[in-house]
Predict the 3D structure of the following.
Amino acid sequence: MTTRERLARLDPLGRLLAPVPATRTGALESVAVAVVAFLLASLRLGRTSYDGVVWAEDGPIFLQGAHEQGLLGALLDPYRGYAHVVARLAAEPVSHLPLTWQGVGISLAAVVVQALVALLVYHVVRAHRPGRPAAVVAALAVAVVPLGWEVIANVANSQWFLLAGAVLAPLWSPQRLVGRVGSALVLALACLSSPFAGLGAALACAVALCVRSRRSVVLAAVGVVALGVQALVMATAPARGDVTGQRDLAALPAGWLRRVVGDAVLGQARYGDAGAPHEAPGVLVGLLALLVLLAGAVALLLSGRGRDLVVPALLVVVGGLAYAAPAYLTSIDTTEVSFSGRYYVPPAVLLLVALAMLAEAAWTRDRSVGSDRRPLLLGAKVLTAALVAATAYGLVTSWQVPDGFTRYTDPSWSEAVTQARVDCDGRRPGAPAELWQSPSNWYVVLPCRVVGG
């Protein structure tokens, strides 16, 4: 058997992994998805995003870096040991806005990234499931992911949404140029903003081997090159030296059940006050949700619909790796609920996308299913519907962050600028001025000539 014949045996798998969209999604529909995703994501903190309350690294690392170094100087400048290209790209145009607008600008730039990832996810899911329900749920999973309060309207954490997008980008075969370019941009920006996006690059290579189309090969090459640049930045970056926890492989499965499955299905709002320290509940909720999901998948398999399980199963497995790698390497404590939710965003999004695809597959009419297997298909419908209902509860109740989140009460960027101008009154133009933001111990330092008066 020749190499070409061996590769040809992968063709059916390639069609399953990266199908050509059976239905065309119009431009107006795409715009509507992006706009709704933007609005839902931007309003999760009430008016806080529009008031310009800057969060954490967005100010002193990325916005200040754009002021001091410009785009060329800061683009590949490492932070915490690796490049953050998407945050650098977002901060550069914002730094040219009037100073009082820059807080709103940097917050909404992050929401734009999130909304565009939601749009990509919508298109990818529609390529697999031509109906809209699964695509809508998948896009909502990105726009209002029910955990990780610190990722909301924050360019420093846009990498986590891009990581989920990087895994999904290879899993379709767009026929229009905008879809191809969009997929390549998401994968490239993800790899240039997080080393964990290597999962997406690896998946793109695997899909290219199965599909062997020009588009799939180009996408894989884009991912490999971008990941290579990230590796070069990491190799020359100063060591982080801040991982102090105990790495424990045995604790990872319980953490996945607790913080990924449990929080993805029922949401993080069930913990109550967002500002108070909480201990995450046990694994019971996550274990129950997983058992229901597995039972639904088995029922669908036994009903003769095993092909519909391939991509959802792949997303769950890759999502598990997207959880395990950062959780293990950073030694996070999965029992503590405060500002570690960002690590669970990509696997939670991928899990919810898998659930949406599985549910629509179960509820899609299939005349090929014999009467003897219809009770199994009915069981799959009931089980997936129960999980979708629980997920809807989590998305709705966790849409807005509960009271107590420090970003609600910390000063807005415009207030910080006003105070800095008062502080700069009568001082030399090069004197440093501090612009305080959220959390309360973070601030940006700009010269008084930039602050103005």
Q: What stands out?
A: The chain has a mean pLDDT of 88. The chain has 19 helices and four strands. The radius of gyration is 23 Å. Residues 177 and 436 are 44 Å apart (CA to CA).
